[in-house]
Amino acid sequence: MALVKRNKMWSTDFSVNGQRYRQSLHTSDWREAQQREKALIADATIGRLTPSGQQFVRLAFSEAAARYLQSRTLELSERSLKKERQLLVQPSRHFGSTPVAKITTDMLIAYRESRSITGVANAYLNMETGAIRRILKRAKRWHLIADDFRPLKERRDIGRALSEEEKNRLLRFAAMRPEWVGVRFAVVLALNTTMRGCEIKGLRWRDVDLLDQTVTIRRSKTAAGARVIPLNGDALNVIVQLYKRAQGIGGDSSEHFVFPSCENDRIDPTRPQRTWRTAWRKLTRSIECPACGVLQNPSEHCIAANCGTDLKNVKSSLSGLRFHDLRHHAITELAESADSDQVIMSIAGHVSQKMLAHYSHVRLSAKRKALDALNTSGKAEGYDTNNGTNGPARLIQRPQVIETNGRPVRARTADLHRVKVAL
């Protein structure tokens, strides 16, 4: 163990378990150099200063992120690796050529604040900083930041159940424009099967059984998501329409996707549809003119030539609705139908009461209906004041007389008299 001064900066040279460590302490103060050397020796003793970690920590963050993703290729599924790559796009742009060893708590906080200003939600920021944390752990640097860096608070009330009026409006609007036919089919399936958007997009014709009227979810977000879902009348009708459409384009093979890819007006049934975000946003933001009933985008005046009604205060009640909220709504309707929790969880693919409670948004009308069942007004006999005081005379049961040593206990004279008369 030795301290050496080079170019006015102290460096250390020591060995632990036969492994030699030499590096700069980045200080010109001798006492501070001693403290940093002791900290390095302690880290080396517990394995934090491995040779691979020393090499990795010197890399620029963008290069370190690329090497990290390469090392996770065999560990993660294709979908998880794609998500991890997406989470590191913005951090790689922000930190760029900054060495991993130079990243500090203040830099991470500043990055998070800059992303938050652009409107990024706390949940996604936590996922991004989680990916950064995994890289810093690989470099054996996270322990220097962990005590001063905390994740942001996330919303726990995310999710929405539609009213009956909103549900009918959504279905009616979706049927008004031919370019929304794909998203309309997806909406009906989500409302009637509890399927997630990714489950609908990944559905193949081999997963559909028209004889048994079921769909099989083979791959989902979680292991519990793999399940068999019966098709009700509305869902079956949509599946039949989709099958007829698939026959028309030659996409009815068992390996073809129920929702095929469509890019540049070219349909490819061997690939799944990636997104219907544009159609979904237009659908949920559209408004209906109260005067002429024309469906249109939000504007100041109606686009109809003979109308021109002021639409400044007309807002869509569906604005901000997420496609995933349709799953919340479907589970809410199942919860309100008085089915057992086990049946609901087997349909929705849940494995815990906590997740069921997260997705269920039992509405006030259902709660009122349940409480109305406890109401006793209107019944022949009840416990209200009139029945309690002025109700018809009822037979008085003969009191029982308890005797102790031949003498009655707690029995009044009048009660004993009535017993004698009855006898």
How many runs of DSSP E, i.e. beta strands? 12
Report the CATH superfamily of the domain at 61-148. Answer: Tyrosine recombinase, N-terminal domain
**Backbone CA Rg:** 35 Å
Shape: elongated
CATH topology category name of the domain at 61-148: DNA polymerase, domain 1
Describe this structure as you would to a colleague.
- Among the domains are: 48 residues, no CATH class; 88 residues, DNA polymerase, domain 1, CATH 1.10.150.130.
- Helix content is 44%, strand content 12%.
- α9 packs antiparallel against α11 and α9 packs parallel to α13.
- The longest helix has 17 residues.
- The chain starts with a strand and ends with a helix.
Helix/strand layout:
Elements: E1 2-6, E2 9-16, E3 19-24, H1 30-45, H2 51-57, H3 61-71, H4 78-87, H5 89-95, H6 105-117, H7 122-138, H8 164-174, H9 181-193, H10 197-201, E4 208-209, E5 214-217, E6 227-230, H11 233-248, E7 260-263, E8 266-272, H12 277-285, E9 287-288, E10 295-296, H13 325-336, H14 341-348, H15 353-359, H16 364-372, H17 385-390, E11 402-404, E12 407-409, H18 413-422
Antiparallel strand pairs: 1-2, 2-3, 4-5, 5-6, 7-8, 9-10, 11-12
Helix pairs in contact: 3-5, 9-11, 9-13
